[in-house]
Specification:
The chain has about 1050 residues and is α/β, with parallel strands linked by helices. Strands 3-1-17-5-16-11-6-10-9 form a 9-stranded mixed beta sheet. Strands 18-23-22-19-21-20 form a 6-stranded parallel beta sheet, sandwiched between helices. The chain has a 4-stranded antiparallel beta sheet with strand order 12-15-14-13, sandwiched between helices. A hairpin with an 8-residue loop joins strand 14 and strand 15. It is globular, with a radius of gyration of 31 Å. The chain starts with 9 loop residues before the first strand and ends with a helix.
Length: about 1050
């Protein structure tokens, strides 16, 4: 039963995290989270909520069972579900239960200091029982509210407290065992004292080792050996010409083959090894991709898995415990997180021997960043290859047993550089490094950072990694990391469902298949007599698959040549048709994919073809040279093919295959691509949700949150999902929010320019009169808003259309064009697909911060600048429009995806079909067997929104009552709106970046005035809109229309100027 927490601007949605039960009711929550600053009240509430979620994982060892209701359906039993079906054998998707959104509630907590101890039994292992459901938390905390520090302080305070509780639990266990055996009290106390000293000394020894390394690092920084001191401006990695020159001087640096090879040399370099089908590598072995020698070596130095050391030297690193895996979208965001991680100080994990030093004892956070070879490879002859696929292939080929020792990578951990491996590990754990630090440390110690970083995993508390390395199970296995029993924090999680879809997407072009066919033919002609029987069979099978895919796409191209629109793009409803030619549909794709990967066939063939082209190339043919250089930066074509074939083996219910005619490259007449799109993230994300102790999704603009629950955690009981939406740290007078549906307060009134309602739906948004009225609104805003204005449009195409209208003279608009009138108010900049966003942003910033007001084309001095950008574009995410850069953010229209696109049609039909199945499962009278629904992720932020009149749910709707079909259609519409509003919310979040910032936010479209649309905006925006309306009413001004907006906005900035 929840009660009130006296903290403002907080809304907790979902089950209260304070449960009146025997496990959690009396647990006090800390008030001291070791925050480096005095936290805002909402930061304290954020940290207490997160701490409580993590604390519930300690005693949570059983799976909660709940019964079916109208809103919450019985979850499916994974152990009884049918075995996965590949895409070639399409079956009806199983359904999953739907989580009901709980009502809003406030929470209360019993507070205590971080030194308070919970005497309950604490598990000493990070493992979790089978059938475990992670604790789930969804946090929305606007940018500027200190989200990163709140995540750090709450999670690490809990982790350090948990370690201390483990220590005390171990002592209590020893005491109980000795007392049960009848040992006298003095002996018990003596044994406990020795154990405490042993553990404390081991901990102190490790800390002293790490402190010596930190001291050496500080001295090196002072001497300038590592550049500027930490906290200053970081220099970018220099992996260019200098590295190549250095690599050129090194013998055996793993370079590529020389030119003019003999036949024997060609065999050694390009001929694949004998291969026998032995069932492939163990899928549970994360080191399965490496050679036997490398595997044995890495296991010897403690890098076999993330599960700890396997017989090597332990060094000073403590045994492995619970870890925090933190992931974000980009490496730059991870670097910012690590910079924040350096700010706070946390108490030691183990109590010190001297009780008087207990309060002063601090322990540095042990963090290791993980990344791909592309970011961490220090072998100049390998990292110069550019693409991730090429680097991976070359790296692994240099580890093969047949590779001569003088040609193997000299940076790979070996018996000769074992000391350097341990020094790398200790340095990493001692210094809170980012990726650039690891790269430089590896270069200094001449040890591979990609492999050596694994030695630091057992001793690390925090592991940072980008999205793709966490979201792909194969990537986690390749890095040797396990999530079982650990904490996963996903930051910038507003796009996590799209991210899951993107990492599992794949495509292949007709021109790729033509090149693959030619490459295979060249390779087979040269080496077929030297390939063993198994190799010849597998290469022949690959040729048949390539031929079949090529025949299918060619037939589609022939149809598209007739000019019919439906033949230009669409859905491949029967994936079995892709491989009907030549009996390719009888080939075991799992085995074929495994063969290509294990034999390194793609890299061998690409290397041989490149060698042949090099020998026969005409350096005087400039166009051919450009084409060759362009191709050098692409992954091997067979690697692309293998990725597409892997997608075909996914569950049939997970995704769809699409075809689309595309512009052909140079020298080609026509081209078409096949692309695989993941429809549902449920199965792909389940390996994370079912393994981790807790999964935390955090972002600045997470609203609306329903989709995360339904599509990422469909089988998690509602009582294990906590959602929290924080208000902003700014005072209410620093925000002005206005929704503008028309020029006049009463819509659809003729103003002399045309119907004045702003309706930016696809069918009406091209109206030139409305576009010019939009220009008038922006012109008025530019007249009163100081410094920077940022306007977001639905798409790049529509932005260009609007600008073209503004540049055409309209008699009703006066002697000047609208574009000229806007230029007389502010300098204008436009985001473009073709130009660098960094350059555009820099020019925009320079104008705003210039002490001299710039001249407009007409010669007049202007005040500030306006940037025209796109929702979902390059400027809508990760860009900071704080203070003067973003005094006003304008969103024009709603960027709905095109509902008639094949991708959205497939997703919508899938969503509606699953809704019907969920409906049947919740009604006992239904004749359809109950099953659990698998939902679908939001559509991609595609442009050209329009209302759909096409048939809905063509495969499942006809036999259902009309009301069920309407409910299903409504559910897909809500899902559609949620996807759109998430993109809008992300654009809005570019403004208001700190406590003292202020800005006006204007949403232009009559649909923003509808309650169901505003309800999907972040809470702090809704509150800002309500406050703005209240103030307009108190001032006696109109609450709608252009006049009312200008009165309120003008007063808002006039007040700020006076203050």
């Amino acid at each position: 039963m929840a009660s009130s927490l006296p903290i403002p601007d907080i809304k907790v949605i979902g089950p209260s995290f304070i449960q009146k039960d025997s496990q959690n009711a009396d647990k006090p929550l800390p008030t001291d989270f070791n925050h480096p600053y005095t936290p805002y009240p909402i930061q304290t509430a954020f940290m207490q909520t997160l701490y409580s979620v993590l604390d519930r994982t300690v005693d949570n060892t059983t799976t909660t069972t709940f019964s079916s209701t109208a809103a919450t359906l019985v979850p499916s039993n994974p152990s009884k579900s049918p075995s996965p079906t590949p895409l070639f054998n399409m079956t009806t998707a199983p359904t999953v239960h739907m989580i009901n959104r709980a009502t809003d509630s406030k929470v209360t907590s019993k507070t205590a200091t971080s030194k308070d101890k919970d005497k309950a039994k604490v598990p000493t292992s990070s493992s979790v029982p089978k059938g475990h459901h992670a604790q789930i938390a969804l946090f929305e905390s606007p940018t500027g509210t200190g989200k990163s520090l709140s995540l750090i302080c709450a999670s690490l305070t809990w982790l350090r407290n948990h370690k201390r509780l483990q220590f005390e639990s171990e002592m209590e266990k020893i005491k109980q065992q000795m007392e049960a055996s009848g040992e006298p009290g003095w002996m018990v106390e003596s044994a406990l004292k020795r154990k405490r000293e042993e553990l404390a000394q081991r901990y102190q020894e490790m800390e002293r080792t790490l402190e010596r390394i930190r001291e050496r690092e500080r001295e090196m920084e002072k001497e300038g050996e590592k550049g500027q001191a930490r906290g200053g401006k970081r220099r970018k990695l220099d992996r260019g010409k200098g590295d190549e020159e250095e690599g050129g001087k090194k013998k055996g640096s793993g370079g590529g083959g020389s030119r003019g090879l003999t036949a024997s040399d060609e065999d050694n370099e390009f001929l694949i090894d004998d291969w026998r089908d032995q069932g492939g590598f163990d899928e549970n072995d994360p080191m399965g991709q490496l050679s036997k020698e490398t595997r044995e070596l890495l296991e010897k130095v403690g890098m076999g898995t993330a599960g700890g050391n396997k017989g090597g030297e332990d060094g000073p690193v403590a045994e492995e415990g619970i870890k925090i895996f933190y992931t974000s979208r980009t490496h730059s965001q991870l670097t910012q997180f690590i910079q924040e991680l350096r700010r706070p100080e946390f108490p030691a994990s183990v109590p010190t021997l001297d009780a008087q030093d207990e309060d002063a004892a601090k322990e540095i956070v042990k963090q290791i960043p993980l990344s791909s070879r592309q970011k961490l490879c220090i072998n100049p002859s390998v990292n110069k290859l550019g693409t991730l696929a090429a680097i991976n292939e070359r790296c692994q080929s240099l580890q093969q047993p047949k590779t001569p020792k003088e040609h193997r990578c000299p940076y790979l951990p070996s018996a000769a550089n074992l000391k350097a491996t341990h020094e790398f590990r200790d340095t990493a754990l001692a210094t809170l490094p980012d990726i650039e630090d690891l790269y430089q440390t590896g270069k200094q110690l001449k040890i591979c950072p990609y492999y050596a970083s694994r030695a630091a995993i057992p001793g690390a508390e925090v592991i940072t990694l980008p999205y793709p390395l966490l979201l792909q199970k194969s990537a986690r296995e390749a890095l040797g990391i396990k999530l079982e029993g650990n904490i996963v924090i996903i930051d910038e999680a507003h796009n996590i469902m799209d991210a899951v879809s993107n990492v599992h997407a794949a495509e292949i072009k007709y021109t790729d298949l033509k090149r693959a066919k030619l490459s295979l033919a060249m390779y087979y002609q040269r080496f077929h007599q030297k390939l063993n029987g198994e190799n010849r069979v597998m290469v022949a099978q690959l040729q048949r698959v390539v031929e079949a895919l090529g025949v299918y796409i060619k037939s589609r191209l022939d149809q598209a040549a007739k000019g019919l629109k439906e033949d230009q793009e669409g859905v491949v409803y029967d994936a079995n048709l892709l491989l009907t030619t030549g009996g390719a549909d009888q080939i075991n794709l799992y085995k074929l994919i495994s063969y290509v990967q294990e034999s390194k066939l793609a890299f061998k063939i690409e290397g041989y073809v490149s060698y042949c082209e090099e020998e026969s190339r005409d350096t005087d043919d400039e166009e051919a040279e450009k084409e060759i250089k362009k191709r050098e930066g692409r992954p091997p074509v067979l690697h692309t093919l293998c990725s597409f074939l892997t997608a075909l083996t996914n569950l049939s219910s997970e995704g769809k295959i699409f075809f689309e005619k595309i512009p052909p490259p140079r020298g080609e007449v026509q081209d078409m691509k096949l692309s695989y799109m993941l429809l549902s993230p449920t199965h792909a994300f389940s390996s994370i949700a079912e393994s981790a102790r807790a999964v935390i999704l955090a972002g600045g603009t997470m609203s609306p949150m329903e989709d995360y629950k339904a599509h990422l955690f469909p089988d998690v009981p509602p009582e294990k999902i906590t959602t929290l939406s924080c208000g902003h740290v700014i005072p209410k007078e620093n925000l002005c929010v206005w929704t503008l549906g028309s020029i006049a307060p009463n819509p659809k009134v003729n103003t002399g320019i045309g119907e004045d309602c702003f309706d930016f739906t696809f069918s009406k948004r091209s109206n030139s009169n409305m576009i010019n009225r939009l220009g008038l609104v922006l012109l008025n805003l530019c007249s009163v808003v100081p410094d920077g204005v940022v306007a977001f449009f639905p798409s790049y195409g529509y932005l260009e259309e609007v600008i073209q209208v503004w540049k055409v003279h309209d008699q009703a608009m006066g002697p000047k064009t609208m574009w000229e009138r806007l230029e007389s108010k502010k300098a204008l900049f436009m985001d473009s697909k073709t130009e660098s966003s960094e350059q555009t942003l820099q020019k925009y910033s320079d104008v705003i911060h210039s002490e001299v007001r710039p001249l407009s084309p007409s010669g007049a001095r202007v005040k500030g600048a306006m940037l025209l950008s796109v929702v979902g574009g390059k400027m809508s995410e990760g860009i900071n429009f704080s203070d003067r850069l973003g005094r006003c953010v304008i969103v024009v229209g709603l960027p709905y995806p095109n509902p008639r696109s094949p991708e959205w049609e497939a997703r919508r039909e899938y969503l509606e079909a699953n809704f019907v199945e969920r409906y049947n499962a919740s009604h006992p009278t239904s004749t359809t067997a109950a099953a659990a629904a698998q939902p679908v992720i939001p559509p991609p932020s595609n442009t050209n929104p329009r209302s759909s009149s096409s048939s809905r749910n063509r495969h499942h709707k006809n036999n259902k009552p009309a009301n069920v079909a309407k409910l299903a259609a409504r559910a897909s519409t809500v899902f559609y709106e949620n996807a759109t509003l998430r993109a809008v919310n992300q654009s809005i979040g570019r403004a208001i970046r700190h406590q003292n910032d202020y800005a006006a936010i204007v949403l232009i479209d009559h649909r923003y005035e509808k309650e169901h649309v505003r309800a999907r905006l972040p809470g702090w925006i809704r509150e800002g809109w309500e406050e703005t309306q209240k103030m307009a009413k108190e001032e006696g001004k109109a609450q709608k229309g252009l006049q009312g907006m200008m009165g309120r906005v003008n007063m808002f900035f006039r007040t700020k100027k006076q203050n």
